[in-house]
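discrete fold record:
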Amino acid sequence: MKKDKYMQAAIEQAQKGLSEGGIPIGSVLVKNGQIVGRGHNQRVQKNDPMTHAEIDCLRNAGRIGNYKGTTLYSTLMPCYLCAGAVVQFGIKKVIVGESQTFPGAVAFMQQHGVEVVNLNDAECVNMMEQFIKDKPELWNEDIGE
């Protein structure tokens, strides 16, 4: 099965983060069939606990005006911080690589009218499982444990 090109772009962002010594989570924002923002988790690289992949993506998209019709892609189910940004900006669709390694805030987003599609993508699962195995202390810091 051919992978969705937008999820593939999010995976490339995650791989970029990993290659920089960070946490392999990537995100892209799509509007009218075009990627308008890309980002990856840069908590380690920027020493900034707020620079999650989805936040980085939204920052990089800049001021796009209205978020109606946008779709946010993320390799991992968004946490409450990132889900809050989704709800705040009125993004109504989030497509996720996986939630097996981290359940995230799916119910929160759904309660606020966000359609969440979980692809259960093996590449996303394997990337996170390997990272968690290799760097458990960094992962636990990222999820606040």
Remarks:
- Residues 37 and 61 are 4 Å apart (CA to CA).
- The longest helix spans residues 5-19.
- The mean pLDDT is 95.
